[in-house]
Amino acid sequence: SGLKTAVSLFIRNLSAEEFESHKADIAASFQEAAVDSLAIKTVRVAQDNNINHVTLSGGVAANSRLREVLAESLKRVGKKLFCPSIQLCTDNAAMIAATGYYKFQELGPGELIANAIPNLALPEAQ
Prior knowledge:
Layout: H1 2-12, H2 16-48, E1 53-55, H3 64-76, E2 80-82, H4 93-107
Parallel strand pairs: 1-2
Helix pairs in contact: 1-2, 2-3
């Protein structure tokens, strides 16, 4: 969140013209800073805990720059990165939201404190 705040504050000080002419550079710099931070922390955790194999998954695993930097960083310290194919690197938030919507339609609002039901059945598509 510190990185996002720094970028937000930087952008606020730009004119609309400056932002438009530099937004690609700002986005690339943000990505590079975020990727470097994730790679440094991941390598540190792997080394501190004697972990030789790291898996990158979920939506973030679709970021090719993160894959590249993380794989190189881990390789330098004798560790290996495993990633699923890009087609399998999706963010499940939409699927979770859809499940919640259908359960709400079927059962109405739930209690504020609910238990997870890992094998919850979904209604048939109509």
